[in-house]
Amino acid sequence: ATLEWVDWYNNRRLLASIGSIPPAEAEAAYYAQLEVMPMAA
C-alpha cells in the first residue's frame, strides 16, 4: 500500500501551484524546454 501511495504522490496527484498537472508531467515539460533553449555565448 505504501508503494502505491508513493507512486500516486510522485506521478499522478495534481498540483495547483504548477498548473494542476502531475509532478511527473511538470518534470518532463521542464526538461523538454531545457532542450529547446539555445545556449548563451
UniProtKB/TrEMBL annotation:
Protein name: IS3 family transposase
Protein's organism: Microvirga tunisiensis
